[in-house]
Amino acid sequence: MARTQDPPRGAMPLRELLIPKEAKAMASFGVRDLDAMMRFAPRRYLVPAPLTSLRTISEGEEVSAIVTVVGVHERRMRTRPGSVLEVTVSDSSEQITLTFFLAKPHLVDWHRSHLPVGALIVVHGRVGRNDYRGTFQITHPEYEPVEDTAAGRAHAQRPRPVYPLRKNIAQRTMREATEKGVEHAEALTRILPDEVLAERGLVSLAEAARLVHTPLTLEDTRAGMAHLRYEEAFVLQSIFAQRRAQDERTPAPALRAEGPLQGLFEQRLPFSLTEGQRSIGAELVEHVGRDHPTSVLLQGDVGSGKTVVALRAMLRAVDSGHQAALLAPTEVLAEQHHRTLTGLLGELARAGQLDGHPEATRVRLLTGSQRTGARRETLLDVTSGEAGIVVGTHALLTESVEFAALGLVVIDEQHRFGVDHRRRLRTKGPGGTSPHVVVMTATPIPRTAALATVGDLDVLTLRESPGNRAGVSSYVVHEQLPAWEERMWARAGEEIAQGRQVLVVCARIDEDLDEAPEPRGPEQDGAEKPPPLEPARGVTQTAERLRRHPALRGARIGVLHGRLEAEAKQEAMDAVRDGTLDLLVATTVIEVGVDLPNASVMIVLDAERFGISQLHQLRGRVGRGEHPGIAFLDTRVEVGGAHSQHLEAIAEAADGFALAELDLQRRGAGDLVGEEQSGLRRTLRHLDVLRDARLIENARQDAFAVVAGDPELAAHGALETAIAERLRDADPDVERS
Predict the structure, then answer these.
(1) Tell me, what DSSP letter sits at residue 435?
(2) Which of 36, 147, 238, 263 gives 152 a disulfide partner, CB atoms 3.0 to 4.6 angstroms apart?
(3) Cα–Cα distance, 475 to 619 (Å, whole number)
(4) How far is Cα 727 from Cα 723, in angstroms, rounded to an integer?
(5) Domain co-membership, 85 together with 68
(6) Are 25 and 166 in contact (CB under 8 A)?
(7) Rounded mean pLDDT, 370-399
């Protein structure tokens, strides 16, 4: 059947529409055709002050006035190159001077040509005072020609779009470019079906472009942006709908066996499963029992027991005659998972060994730094199927790793892996089948954010935590209050004296190298920026300072960071687990998944430099055993300032769910899924997942209906093109296959 697809007229290159300066300005934002430019929304709108008489103005006031040019005077500047252009204007009640300081002659000529004597203009700006004459003036005002009619006055009062700018680009250039684009808006590529526009009460795309870029009222801007937001949500949900449909058509091994390993594992568990673990486990059983691949997001707070739930699903895969793989983002975490799984399984993980159970399987570890002999042995077990469970890092994704019968993939901290990683694992199923995929995250995503960013995954949420954890209390420590800092280190020393351990995290490895990350604080676009931060402390120097600290006298102190050799990292972790280290100074290499039950104190230095999810993950490293944990968020920022308030809010949040909601409310779509995905803004261009929750639900309903009726989008060519373009620059959360 021939595809009915209109040519993308909106793909008109901007170089055919704009002058070079305007096209170059747009290209600096990656905007190169008409479609992209009309969807490039202003950051905000500037509403002019009400029209007023010059007789009533006062110094410092923002004014708008309709005036006539009565005189133009140019003089050279005395102390620097260039000219001062003084334009006298009047509204018949009073006169005022418009003053321009212009370095280049062509700028003088430009303003002279637009401000001839007798011209009627509307002028906007702040009233100042001429220091020499003592008279009122407006320096560098905005102005434009105006008609002295009701329509002209309304046009003069319209909101002005404010676009983001790059160096040497004027706001005027951006506005003139988009105004030219509006003249060709009927040629734009229409993505939303007409029936959707009618059902949802949306204006046409051409009208939306006019309302967004050349509005007459703020209500116009809201109506125009409503179309762009719905369109964005519709495209995203269409991506998810297509992937759901693709999954329905792809075969997968149905993992339905109730075999021996599952029952034996539950018998040897040293604790009882929570009600949440049982109910979520039952849902997972239903998902992996399907004969088409399931895609599940298993989310739960730090310490909620996700690993045990995932292990039960992996054992179901083994009992069903297949293999399961657990993919971790770092070698430290992969080794931790391997140790955890073999510890939980005991004799059930020692197939072929004298002390192994008759029904046992093998649990193998595969990382990039493994010695050749161990790697060869692991690969043989993976290829032969002897290894029922394989734990590894990105090394699992290489072409040399061939599974005998991969049926289930569990990905820990899914935001660390992009689409290519997941796609490669999808191809490792036996006989053209695709394994089931369960991705885990300890950074919960509120429902509306999940619909917009991982909408092709079924979200399963663990809300309760096992009762065998003591929990953690969090405090912000301001070094500007020395007594607080002294008490923090004293408390660390007291915990060490009680036989417990302390973790100290730094934002960088070495203070002598320029490697500190950019601060990830609470400021928003357009908000006043907090004062600059102190240079971040490093692991190397901090460890040396702590060895001399009176409160830590005699403490055994070690270090751990990404620049160490794999063997040195393992030795450091083993020393902490064995109790031969009292205090470990580390980078965020210990952020995720590291289980140290005897650690009771977490101190994060320069805490203002870490994201919300990072801080929550870090404080989750303590209080995992019988002793209550304490997390100190240490900072040198001003007490009560923006960064300080940000840290206090994190410390007061009870759990990851509260933090996710807090961040969603504060920024709309900020750092919801970890450091690698702090760019939800890259994915959501116009949408705000809090404000637009109902819109996203409606778009999901419409998109799934369209894809259900036309899976290949044969009659929706523009939508198909929009999906392809979106996937090219999408966030990994969206681009999942």
Answers:
(1) -
(2) 147
(3) 11
(4) 6
(5) yes
(6) yes
(7) 89
Residue 136 lies in a domain: yes
Q: Please indicate, yes or no, if residue 197 is contained in any of the structural domains.
A: no
- Give the pLDDT confidence of 688-737 residue by residue, as tens digits: 877 888 999 999 999 999 999 999 999 999 999 999 888 776 544 443 33
- Encode pLDDT of 313-351 as tens digits: 999 999 999 999 999 888 888 888 998 899 999 999 999
Bridging pattern class, strands 472-478 and 501-505: unpaired
C-alpha closest to that of 615 among 636, 633, 637: 633
Using alpha carbons, list the distances in angstroms from residue 235 to 2, 191, 695. 23, 8, 13
Task: Classify the C-alpha dihedral 435-436-439-445 as positive or negative.
Answer: positive
Neighbours of 267 (CB within 10 A): 8
The CATH number that applies at residue 153 is: 2.40.50.140
Residues 172 and 151 reside in one and the same domain: no
On whether residue 61 sits in a domain, the answer given is yes
Question: What confidence category does residue 286 fall into, taking pLDDT thresholds of 50, 70 and 90?
Answer: very high
* Shared-domain flag, residues 544 and 594: yes
> What residues contact residue 223 under an 8 Å CB cut-off, 6+ apart?
203, 208, 211
Find the domain containing 16 and state its range.
1-45+164-189
* Number of Cβ within a 10 Å radius of residue 382: 23
Same domain, 58 and 140: yes
Q: How many CB atoms are located within 10 Å of the residue 309 CB?
A: 27
Do 4 and 149 reside in the same domain of the chain? no
Q: Which two tokens stand for residue 549?
A: 């600290």
Tokens of 558: 């070690």
Find out whether 300 and 306 touch, Cβ atoms under 8 Å: yes
Q: For residues 571 and 636, state if they share a domain.
A: yes
Bridge partners (DSSP) listed for residue 86: 73, 99
- What pTM, to 2 d.p., does this model score? 0.72
Q: What is the DSSP string of 185-208?
A: GGGSPP-S-HHHHHHHTPPPHHHH
For 496-527, the pLDDT digits (tens) are 999 999 999 999 998 876 544 444 444 333 34
Instruction: Give the CATH number, domain containing residue 603.
Output: 3.40.50.300
